[in-house]
Amino acid sequence: MNILRKSIYLPLIFRQSTRCMCYKTVKRPDFSDKPRERKIQPNKVDEKPFSLSDHIKARIKFGGPITLAEYMKEVLVNPNNGYYMNRDVFGHQGDFITSPEIGQIFGEMVAIWCLTEYQKLGSPSPLQIVELGPGRGTLMQDILRVMSKFELIKEFSIELVEISPFLSKAQALMLCVSSKEVSGEKHYREGKTGSGVNVRWYRSYDDIPDGFTILLAHEFFDALPINKLLRDGDKWREMLIDIDPDNEKQFRYIQSREETPVSKLFKQLCHKDESRDVVELCLEADRILRNVAKKFEENGGFGLIMDYGHWGEKGDTFRAFKNHKLHDPLVDPGNADLTADVDFRQMQQSCTAEDRLITFGPVEQGTFLQRMGANVRLENLLKNAQNEEQKSALKSGYEILTSEKQMGKRFKFFSMFPAVTKDHLQKFPVSGFS
Questions:
Q1: Do 216 and 304 touch, CB atoms closer than 8 A?
Q2: Are the C-beta atoms of 382 and 399 separated by less than 8 Å?
Q3: How confident is the model over 10-61, as pLDDT tens digits?
Q4: CA distance 69 to 72
Q5: Are 100 and 139 spatial neighbours (Cβ–Cβ below 8 Å)?
Q6: How many CB atoms lie within 10 A of CB 7?
Q7: What are the angstrom distances between the C-alpha of 411 and each of 221, 369, 400?
Q8: Are 220 and 209 in contact (CB under 8 A)?
Q9: What sign results for the dihedral spanned by CA atoms 75, 73, 306, 153?
Q10: In the chain, at which end, N or C, are there fewer CB atoms within 10 A of the end residue's CB?
């Protein structure tokens, strides 16, 4: 790391006055069936709908059983009928609801965290805020609102990694006053916010331009494809997806007869004290995080990952959700969300490979939000609430976000910084993590 690169990490003590937030309560989107202005419509489909199930069966008949990772990729992001590609899956009318949709406090605390750590590192400019899988764009909308109030960042852009054409349109309506599709560039859509901030959409993190970056990922890594490995003595077999020979309309799980390339790779990488008989390995997460580490080392930046997960103690967490209830992952592919808990221990290994990054956490969501002052923010919002209905919504939303019985314990926060900042962060500990 040369002297110029190190200079972007000069300490700047964060001004505590920014914690005193006084802007008003934000009304969350109406998830009812009532028509709304600028509502994005589902993508049109042919009169004879494409059968994702038949497509997967054709793949299996042609090439044999497929890995769970291949199955998840087809189900979630198949261009024709993948789960995320052509519809709004969030909210009460969808299959699940995320923390930013529940209440504005979540996004506001994340924004304050970003501002705090950014100023500690010397407020380098220009800055790009990158979000992986922005959902509806609610989290980024809250972050933009907080930043516009404090006006602590002079020049920044928003770079969004979104593979779904449908969701990118929904995000554009949420964040921009105008946007358009573009060709011949690494990004496929661009727009501007009401305050003139440039917003661009990419299909891959690999296409994000170089520059000092604040990276955010909320419920992104849990949706990445995983390979499931099963212990067989001193070997590891891989779980595969096949057509049920007793009923060709259904799929079934089978175990590979021999070790696969992925199981052989895991055998080389796994902990010597690995005691689990079932392990879920996310190679795509490893690839992305190693790329993040390289970019952070070369250009500067830091990241915050928010997801549900564990520290290497869980094995079988693969499941599906439909209409907010558990659903059989092998039934009606493409019409239910597939997910698996994030293995934060694996994530830390990817981040710290080659000593490029240092990591903090994971810490529980409730703990993080309270350390960032969420309880104080709630009190301020309650004082300014216009009626009892609004107060009740604020309290219930806060309870869902922070309670150990709900999202507060299950969801975790995990942060990463370039290794060159280690001594600095020992003097100025990372907010929310200590």
A1: yes
A2: no
A3: 333 333 333 334 345 555 544 333 333 444 555 554 444 558 999 999 999 9
A4: 5
A5: yes
A6: 11
A7: 12, 11, 11
A8: no
A9: negative
A10: C
